[in-house]
Design a protein that fits this description.
The protein has 172 residues and is mostly helical. Helix content is 63%, strand content 0%.
């Protein structure tokens, strides 16, 4: 078992080294991955799907991150899914192994983006993360979106607000 763990750790270090060469330290997506703990958002997104008969096959955190990429680059979902196959920055941000060929079905990602939110927990997460990073970077909260939208309360809308705030905080 020890040999297996050592090999696994070695492989993980090699992946990190490869991405370290390919993705500069000041890259927006690298900074976002390093500064934001996305693990808690998975539970919140899973809550949105609680009681739904259709089970998504994909990781909720990766899907949310895909919506961030889609909004940042103003891509259609089809183009984003196609780019995921070859763009190492996207793959790094989504925490794929560089050789892993997994991707999303466009229909699944589209459905995820349109999913209405049943409560404000996702927005609360967004605003708490935004506030902490803004304070750390000395960015005024007045320049950030801190109100929950009235007419479009979907996961896609939440991702756009989060991205807008992170761009103001992390980009020079």
């Amino acid at each position: 078992m020890l040999i297996y763990n050592d090999q696994k750790e070695f492989a993980h270090r090699r992946i990190e080294e490869a991405y370290g060469v390919l993705i500069p330290e000041d890259n927006f997506w690298r900074q976002l991955n390093n500064r934001v703990d996305f693990s808690s958002i998975g539970v919140l997104l899973e809550e949105v799907y609680k009681g739904t008969t259709k089970k998504l096959a994909t990781d909720f955190i990766r899907m949310f991150k895909c919506l961030l990429l889609k909004s940042y680059y103003n891509l259609s979902i089809d183009i984003l899914v196609e780019n995921l196959k070859t763009n190492f920055t996207y793959r790094y941000f989504l925490e794929y192994d560089p050789l892993e060929m997994g991707t999303f079905e466009p229909n699944e990602l589209e459905e995820f983006a349109r999913k209405p939110l049943s409560n404000g927990e996702l927005f609360s997460w967004i605003f708490s993360v935004t506030s902490l990073l803004a304070e750390e970077k000395n960015v005024s909260l007045d320049t950030l979106v801190t109100a929950r939208p009235k007419n479009d309360e979907t996961i896609g809308a939440a991702a756009k607000i989060f991205l807008s705030n992170m761009k103001k905080i992390l980009e020079p």
